From TrEMBL:
UniProt KW keywords: ATP-binding, Kinase, Nucleotide-binding, Phosphoprotein, Transferase
A family per Pfam: HWE_HK
Protein's name in the database: histidine kinase
Organism name: Pseudomonas syringae pv. actinidiae
Gene3D superfamilies in the record: Histidine kinase-like ATPase, C-terminal domain
Highest taxon above the source species: Bacteria
Length: 254
């Protein structure tokens, strides 16, 4: 019989494995080395499993704390703004964005990554019963930061469309297409592109000035993953084109 310590990657003993030779013979040096390697592998698998369990618990605690933080921020904002009736519109917009940010963080924390289609499905769910909304593109797993930023952007575009654009009318529609475009034959870099196209709504006119929403969209994309947004105020409907380097900051192909 031979007793072999199960060593972790840091060479800490996690236990031991006792093995009896089926022929009652001594183990050769080669057999001992093999059994030691197998024992260490078992120890590392067990350590990884414990680490995953710990990460799951930590993510649950983090989500709980984030939820409480958002509730606290919302409560403080409501108490403060009650003293200022003239800020009623700001209060409503701020509340909507706070709820949306919480939803985006919850989605991202649920699996550490979230695919593009699921994010759009969640963020546009309130409008899908009344309007024709379609979206398609390759499978992309977004990072937490990218998912949060895109959730902000989708929420802002959706809110504006529901107030002034195609989602404000039952005959209106929305199409979202995203893709990964190669830059060149010999270049490994690629670009992520998303096109938001509204149709069937009221005629669109070029705004006289850039509002907070436009600045927020551009700032969120730029800060999160070096993204950019371009707006086209076409009479048939607003079009927004989002582009960014397809790097690890944004996500990966699934």
């Amino acid at each position: 019989m031979i007793s072999i310590p199960a060593l972790s990657a840091e060479n800490n003993a996690q236990g031991s494995i006792a093995i009896i030779h089926p022929m009652g013979m001594s183990f050769t040096a080669e057999q001992r080395d093999f059994l030691q390697a197998a024992s260490s592998l078992c120890a590392r698998i067990c350590a990884y499993s414990r680490s995953q369990e710990s990460n799951t618990l930590m993510l649950g605690e983090l989500e709980h704390r984030i939820r409480n933080l958002f509730l606290t921020i919302g409560g403080v904002a409501n108490l403060t703004l009650k003293r200022y009736p003239e800020a009623k519109q700001f209060r409503a917009v701020f509340g909507e964005r706070l709820v949306m940010m919480h939803r985006a963080h919850s989605l991202a924390l649920s699996t550490c990554e979230i695919d593009m289609a699921t994010l759009l499905q969640e963020m546009l769910a309130p409008y899908q019963k009344d309007c024709d909304i379609s979206f398609s593109g390759p499978d992309i797993l977004l990072t937490q930061e990218a998912a949060s930023a895109l959730a902000l952007v989708i929420h802002e575009l959706g809110t504006n469309a529901a107030k002034y654009g195609s989602l404000a009318q039952s005959a209106g529609g929305l199409d979202i297409q995203w893709s990964i475009v190669a830059q060149g034959i010999n270049e490994p870099d690629a670009t992520f592109r998303l096109v938001w196209t509204e149709c069937g709504g009221p005629q669109v006119e070029q705004p006289s000035r850039k509002g907070y929403g436009t600045a927020m969209i551009k700032g969120s994309l730029s800060n999160a993953f070096d993204g950019a947004a371009t707006f086209f105020y076409e009479p048939a409907g607003l079009k927004c084109e989002i582009s960014a380097p397809f790097t690890r900051k944004l996500g990966r192909s699934n």
